[in-house]
## 1
Amino acid sequence: DAGVIQSPRHEVTEMGQEVTLRCKPISGHNSLFWYRQTMMRGLELLIYFNNNVPIDDSGMPEDRFSAKMPNASFSTLKIQPSEPRDSAVYFCASRTGTGDQETQYFGPGTRLLVL
Amino acid sequence: GNSVTQMEGPVTLSEEAFLTINCTYTATGYPSLFWYVQYPGEGLQLLLKATKADDKGSNKGFEATYRKETTSFHLEKGSVQVSDSAVYFCALTGVGSGNTGKLIFGQGTTLQVKP
């Protein structure tokens, strides 16, 4: 299995531009998570989906952030407009289920720098 | 609410030294407990887990025992190597209303192993 795939791996953009981060979860996994990691705040859960449906988006910082999961094999996290404080590493993770299957598998992350 | 507290880093050890990274948690019910490791420039990888009290998770020489009486899940390794240098995250699955499915992370502990 290829694992969780994220693209791009690195993104440098200017303030005010739209940024779209992409994630392909592990095939067969039915839960998907978006995290943000910064030195100041550590790992933060932004949003997660079960069976393509957003379950909890309470971690989404503000209206500039949006996430979609149009099908079981693809999700996007969009920032519009981007700001320098959005600079962080964004991780996507997927999971097959609950109980003993609750382990989350992380992608390599997208390193975002907003100038 | 649910939370995880890890010992502050960085932890600096010489090769072959004994490692302990403390982790304590607060949760209602019976969460599953995890240790994730993040090597420089990479995403998080599951290191080990335990799903019920007194379980011991182990992998790559690392061990942690789920201690419900002390609400702890300390990570140990008998002899560290330079290649173990990384950031270690303790985590639990959320329990209770509004938390199911989430991973709650500690702040991470940086381990530096010197030759």
Note: The interface with chain B takes residues 4, 31, 33, 42-43, 45, 48, 50, 55-56, 91, 93, 95, 98, 100, 102-109 of chain A (CB under 8 Å).
## 2
Amino acid sequence: KAGVTQTPRYLIKTRGQQVTLSCSPISGHRSVSWYQQTPGQGLQFLFEYFSETQRNKGNFPGRFSGRQFSNSRSEMNVSTLELGDSALYLCASGPSDQFSTEAFFGQGTRLTVV
Amino acid sequence: DQQVKQNSPSLSVQEGRISILNCDYTNSMFDYFLWYKKYPAEGPTFLISISSIKDKNEDGRFTVFLNKSAKHLSLHIVPSQPGDSAVYFCAAKQSYGQNFVFGPGTRLSVLP
């Protein structure tokens, strides 16, 4: 079974631009969540999508948004990039049950904002 | 306000000995706890989990203990192997959804 796939793996953007990251979950998983990892703040929850609906959201500004498609693939968008948005962005998928347990992570997208 | 804490940033252990990684949490609504291992430039890898209705869960060399009254959990690795050297994250969640709260991580070094 293929794991969680994130594209691209690396990205360099300029301040003020916007960026879209993509995540393909494990086949059959309907929950997709996004996390930001930085040296200072650690792993922080951004949002979770389940069956195309956002069902949980972390404490990030509105510049961070996401969506999920009918095939469970998800995209995350960051608009008006700031230097502080440089981070490893991780996507995780989980089984269909809303009370499911562990999440399985992709390798992440390393975003650098210059 | 850090809801999940791992107070030891790093830990060194001799190969073959026991590694004990600790985690404390403050939110009494958490009812599911997990440990992840992470290598540089990779996503976290799930290791083991425990529900709040249990106080111990074992999987091979890995055992997680939960003390709900103390809001404390620990991961025991026996015996430790050099390949276990990585950053270990403790994570917690409430039953609904997949919004995990992660601790800051503990870097484990297993010395040959």
Note: Chain A has no helices and eleven strands.
